[in-house]
Every structure is written in structure tokens, then in C-alpha cells.
Write a structure and sequence with these properties.
Keywords: ATP synthesis, Cell membrane, CF(1), Hydrogen ion transport, Ion transport, Membrane, Transport. By secondary structure, this protein is of the alpha+beta class. Helices cover about 65% and strands about 10% of the residues. A hairpin with a 2-residue loop joins β3 and β4. α1 runs antiparallel to α5.
Length: about 270
């Protein structure tokens, strides 16, 4: 987002956090789902999105326009939060749409935090990604943007319903829909990182040839936390192809000490 859009989103996020602080987790989750439903509708309404960022209208006018469109269709809490969002300045209709979707996601994470489930939601999203990527046919189906999105969402729901937290199910559905215009895998990673960010943590994606023990995982997390000056959520993927050693990706930093990488370096030097 550009600077003006970031400022507008920060104000809306503050309003969301204030609302979450005075409401129960179930109500916040319901409001978040309503906001996501509005994002889905607006995705197919480019003229309305342009009107909602029109600088010739005041923020109050844009809020009233949105309220007139949504009145009676969603709850007043969701309408009020969306009015706070469109009252700001936006660089483009696309950035407004992205912000509405992000506000819905942040609302779901706030509800999970209020119910004490945020860490579990983060882990469930990561594990769902591992299950999908570990099954080629499933990965091809869920990630195939040429297939009807409702069919792919239904598949993800079937895999998670009754086995994961409700917030996890809704967020996974959002990743299948392409959260923020991303691919499924990229959207899911972004949601894992958003959950960790709400817990004030970075995410370290760790690849090893064999599973780490709990003690090894804790030592690695502590070492990374000391290096980065912030708590780190360690997400481990087991891949026998790396042969041995550890590969760690945290943010844009990649540390590759795997045997496979060292062998590749030797081959390159010999060539």
C-alpha cells in the first residue's frame, strides 16, 4: 500500500482493535466474516469501488454511500468498521479492496486471540499447507485457478471442518480464494505470518531431513530470537531430499546449511 492508504488502514485497524476489546470473540468473528463477504461482493463492483475512494466526496459521504448499499444486509458493527475504512484516503480501488479483505482477516485473528486460540490457528494453517503440498493431486486441485473457486473452497472446508478451529477454516477458505490476489500457497503463508505478527513474532520456515526434537526446535527458536531481537515461531518441514543439515528462511533472509546445498556448491566449483 502507498502511504495514504497505509495511514487509512491503520486508523481502521485501531477501530477494529477497539471493537474487539469490548466485544466477545464470537461476535468479532461474525463481524469479520461479514467484512470478508463485503470484500467478495466489491471484487465484482469496480464502479462502486471507484466511488468509494472518490476524492471529490468527503469521507462521511463515502461512508454514507457504503452504508446505503449495505444497510440491512450485514450487522451495524461491520458497517461502522467499513465506514471508518472508506472515510480514509485511498490510492486506488484495488488498495481499498485489499484493505477490506485484510480488515476481515485481522478481525478473525483478533477473535482467535480473544478466545486464546491464536497460536493454534497459526499452527493449523501451517499444517494445512503441509498436508496440501504433500499430496500432489490435492495441491493441483486447490491451487488451480481455472477451477470454480466455490468447488475448491468446499474441498478445503471438507478437509478442515470439525478438525480445526473455526477461524482456521475461514482463513483457509480465504487463502483458496486468493487472499490479496495471491496464489493459494502464497496466501496461506501470508496468513500464517499475519497470525504470528499479531503474536509479535517472526516466522522461521525450517527445512530438515529428519524431524527435530522439541528441545532442538526450542533451541533453534531461542537462537533465532536472540539474533533478530524478537520472538520467533518455528515452522518445520521434513524433506529427506536435503540429506542433512538445516535450511532456515525468515523474512528475506535464507540460511542454507543443508548437505544438498553443500553438494551443489561442490558440483558448481568442479564445473
Amino acid at each position: 500500500m502507498q502511504a495514504a492508504s497505509r495511514e487509512s488502514y491503520a486508523a481502521a485497524l485501531a477501530a477494529l482493535n477497539a471493537y474487539a476489546g469490548r466485544s466477545d470473540a464470537t461476535a468479532v468473528a461474525g463481524t469479520a466474516k461479514e467484512i470478508l463477504s463485503v470484500a467478495s461482493v466489491l471484487a465484482g463492483e469496480p464502479r462502486l469501488r471507484r466511488a468509494l475512494i472518490d476524492p471529490s466526496r468527503t469521507g462521511d459521504d463515502r461512508g454514507e454511500l457504503l452504508g446505503s448499499v449495505l444497510g440491512g444486509k450485514i450487522g451495524t458493527d461491520a458497517v461502522d468498521l467499513l465506514k471508518a475504512l472508506v472515510a480514509g484516503r485511498w490510492s486506488s480501488p484495488t488498495e481499498l479492496l485489499t484493505a477490506i479483505e485484510q480488515l476481515g482477516v485481522d478481525g478473525l485473528l483478533a477473535s482467535a486471540e480473544a478466545s486464546g486460540d491464536l497460536a493454534e490457528v497459526e499452527d493449523e494453517l501451517f499444517r494445512f499447507g503441509q498436508v496440501v503440498s504433500g499430496t500432489p493431486q490435492l495441491a493441483a486441485t486447490i491451487g488451480d485457478s481455472t477451477l470454480a473457486v466455490d468447488r475448491r473452497v468446499a474441498l478445503a472446508t471438507e478437509l478442515l471442518e470439525g478438525k480445526a478451529k473455526p477461524a482456521t477454516v475461514t482463513l483457509a477458505q480465504q487463502s483458496v480464494r486468493g487472499f490479496g490476489g495471491r496464489s493459494f500457497a502464497s496466501a496461506l503463508s501470508k496468513l500464517v505470518e499475519a497470525a504470528a505478527e499479531r503474536r509479535e513474532r517472526d516466522v522461521a520456515y525450517v527445512t530438515v531431513a529428519e524431524p527435530l526434537s522439541e528441545a532442538e526446535e526450542q533451541r533453534l527458536g531461542a537462537s533465532l530470537a536472540q539474533r533478530y531481537g524478537r520472538e520467533v515461531s518455528v515452522k518445520v518441514t521434513v524433506d529427506p531430499d536435503v540429506l542433512g543439515g538445516v535450511r532456515v528462511l525468515i523474512g528475506s533472509d535464507l540460511y542454507d546449511g543443508t548437505v544438498a546445498r553443500r553438494l551443489a556448491d561442490v558440483r558448481a566449483s568442479l564445473a
